[in-house]
Specification:
The protein is an alpha+beta fold. Helix content is about 35%, strand content about 15%.
Length: about 700
């Protein structure tokens, strides 16, 4: 009986299947003389290879020829083809077949070759007849790592690359452990992290690390450093750790001021976060539910070099624990985690979120924005600010559901992400104030003029009257669209941005400093030449948004005492006084100077144009949303008037920039006054149904241009 199994193994029958129980019994008493089997789990005689490796996976061509047992005087079948496909032949013909087909058409990986296999390893449909069954038995490859069968060679190469990118180079078929050379060490802000080769592809790796998000991490670090200066120690959470780079930077630079918790729901990511903590000489405090190991730090052993690493869903950990600082950076939208974030965040804490679903936020996939944010948007010249206000509106609604209001500290929209940082104000009154700032926007699709809809629930007969332009009267059809709901409040907090700039200078964050300077100028609506690190009111302004702020004239004591109702009442009263004394907010949205350029005219330089608008009496600044954007309090009509006044004709190449001296020219101040008077007359005549007034205003506003033509 002991000889029966080897004979079955030698046979070329396609229907032979050996039960595992019989195979184990026969292995104890019988040694195979010839490794020939059609099943996918082949027993290999050679001691160089483990037993579970398929016969199509070999190191050398000679090993593949040994399977065929080539002899000059005998016909032998191919070990990787059924007899119906390749009949038995002599050694010279079989050698060419093995070399030119199986060995040449293969995929190489770490010294092994996965040769093409024609055996019946893949299941076929049971309803096929014999000829169709034979035709369906196509060629395939056996993966050396996971034993999967892949039909196409290109798919097999991609399959192996995915294993390598995930770090799954170890295999039960390979006796030698894969070297750790596949890991790459990246250094950023004096912090080292190990990443996988495909660390920049979030859908194909467990350790996502994007070097292009360095600016994003620096801005979040500056915001946390400012909060750490207000009260310490603070508990901060990186809800989506990935490699743990952000939490490691917090703990490494802020030390005892913060208690860092890095969370991720992926087991491989948690393992890599622990390795990166040890790489940066940080101790790891594991989750309470996990078993105690040597690297676990007890409650009494916590110090400034300890990071808590948890493996939970982000919603779960934010429901279970309270934090002072929470950062959300999922793959895509963050709206699924907003309710959990605002549930237990402490009063006057900070919530920051990074949204990378820019295709929907930048109006390339408008239906997705409607599904995720409940917001109707279109592609406009100010689409980046529209995206930031869309995210903040979702944040404000989520906070209001938890009886909390928000104070927007920072809103940045760049090429790869939208970053929003808000301070949480607990109570129904701040929640109501924040909810009232979520309004709809009326946008003219002809001239790109825009205005937020007036407060109130009453329906207006003609909502086009709210727009400063008269495109509805002069253009056919419906000219405006209703966008939103959007956040209508301020996007920046000047005092907080100035302190972030000081932290960036202190820690040497060079990439964040130019952006923060631009944001400060944008928040104050001033040009960069008027920018100063310390504003004149900094010495006397010691409260901001109801939060105690240290200034150079302040003693080292902090009056913010945790857990005392009296201190909260003092802060609440101070916050009311500060809001009453708050200066005018920056104008919403901006205009692109190229979008409104005049045909046949050379525009002035952007900085000179800002000066011209400032001299005309308007608040003006550049914006980080658009390098050619201008944030100004001037309406679009006056924006175009000043732009035309200081533009030069294209054919006058050597003419210096300045006002065009044409007959009948009127001064900008007179134009502003005339436009204001005509606007009043237009409002009075609108009730009588008379139209054409705006056309007259347009004709009076451009007499020089008509004379030039």
């Amino acid at each position: 009986d002991g000889v029966v199994v080897p004979e079955k193994v030698k046979s070329n029958s396609l229907d032979v299947k050996i039960p595992e129980s019989e195979l184990e019994a026969e292995e104890k008493g019988v040694e195979e003389k010839r490794p020939r089997e059609s099943d996918s789990n082949i027993l290999d005689v050679s001691s160089d290879y483990p037993r579970d490796k398929h016969i199509s996976i070999q190191r050398h061509l000679a090993d593949l020829e040994k399977l065929a047992d080539l002899r000059e005087d005998e016909k032998k079948p191919c070990p990787l083809c059924p007899e119906e496909k390749f009949k038995a032949c002599y050694s010279h013909k079989l050698h060419r077949h093995l070399q030119n087909l199986h060995w040449k058409v293969s995929v190489e990986f770490e010294g092994y070759r996965m040769c093409i296999c024609h055996l019946s390893c893949r299941p076929v449909k049971p309803n096929l007849v014999a000829d169709q069954t034979l035709a369906k038995m196509g060629a395939h490859y056996h993966c050396i790592i996971c034993s999967a069968t892949i039909i196409r060679r290109t798919d097999m190469i991609g399959h192996i690359n995915r294993h390598v990118n995930k770090g799954e180079t170890e295999s039960r078929f390979i006796t030698v452990r894969a070297p750790k050379s596949s890991y790459e060490v990246v250094k950023e802000s004096a912090t080292d992290v190990q990443v996988l080769p495909n660390h920049s592809t979030p859908q194909k790796t467990d350790s996502y690390f994007n070097p292009k998000m360095k600016l994003n991490r620096q801005l979040i670090f500056c915001a946390l450093a400012v909060l750490a200066g207000e009260r310490k120690p603070i508990e901060c959470l990186d809800a989506f750790g990935a490699t743990g780079i952000m939490g490691l930077q917090w703990a490494k630079h802020l030390r005892s001021s913060v208690k860092v918790t890095i969370n991720d729901c992926n087991e491989n990511s948690v393992t890599m976060i622990k390795e990166n903590c040890h790489l940066n000489k940080m101790k790891v405090k594991l989750n309470i539910k996990e078993e105690d190991n040597d690297e676990t730090v007890g409650d009494g052993e916590e110090n400034s070099d300890t990071i808590e690493v948890t493996k939970m869903d982000a919603n779960v950990i934010m429901h279970l624990r309270s934090f002072d600082f929470i950062h959300l950076d999922p793959f895509g939208t963050s709206v699924n985690y907003l309710d959990s974030a605002f549930r237990n965040v402490r009063n006057l804490g900070i919530v920051s979120l990074t949204s990378t679903d820019i295709s929907s936020l930048y109006a390339k996939a408008q239906h997705v924005a409607l599904r995720h944010y409940g917001c109707n948007i279109v592609r406009t010249e100010y689409y980046k600010e529209l995206a930031a206000r869309t995210v903040i509106a979702a944040v404000a609604r989520a906070a209001a559901r938890c009886n909390k209001g928000i104070e927007v500290l920072l809103a940045v929209a760049l090429e790869h992400f939208v970053l929003v940082v808000v301070r949480v104000l607990r109570g129904p009154t701040p929640a109501d104030d924040s909810a009232k700032k979520v309004r709809y926007l009326i946008h003219c699709q002809w001239c790109e003029e825009r205005v937020f809809q007036k407060e109130g629930n009453m329906v207006e007969e003609n909502p086009y009257q709210q727009l400063p332009c008269d495109c509805h009267g002069s253009m056919p059809g419906k000219t405006a669209v209703l966008l939103g709901p959007l956040w209508s409040g301020a996007l920046f907090n000047t005092g907080f941005l100035r302190r972030m700039l000081l932290e960036a200078v202190q820690y040497g964050l060079d990439e964040a400093q130019p952006l923060l300077k631009t944001l400060v100028c944008e928040a104050e609506c001033t040009t960069l030449k008027h920018f100063s690190t310390h504003s004149p009111g900094d010495e006397n302004k010691q409260e901001e948004c109801g939060v105690y702020i240290k200034t150079p004239n302040t003693s080292t004591e902090s009056y913010l005492v945790h857990g005392k109702r009296k201190s909260e009442e003092v802060l609440r009263s101070v916050g009311k006084r500060q809001r009453a004394e708050h200066s005018a907010e920056h104008p919403p949205f901006y205009y692109n100077i190229h979008r409104h350029s005049i045909k046949g005219m050379n525009m002035p330089k952007l900085n000179k144009f800002l000066n011209y608008l400032s001299e005309a009496g308007y608040r003006v600044s550049r914006t980080h949303f658009d390098p050619m954007g201008v944030r100004t309090s001037a309406p679009l009509v006056q924006f175009k008037t000043v732009l035309m006044k200081y533009s030069t004709p294209t054919y006058v190449g050597a003419q210096a920039e300045g006002p065009v001296h044409l007959p009948g020219e009127i001064q900008v101040g007179d134009e502003v006054l005339a436009a204001a008077e005509m606007k009043v007359e237009e409002a009075e005549l609108a009730e009588d149904g008379k139209s054409g007034v705006a056309a007259a205003v347009f004709t009076q506003s451009y007499p020089t241009h008509c004379a030039a033509d």
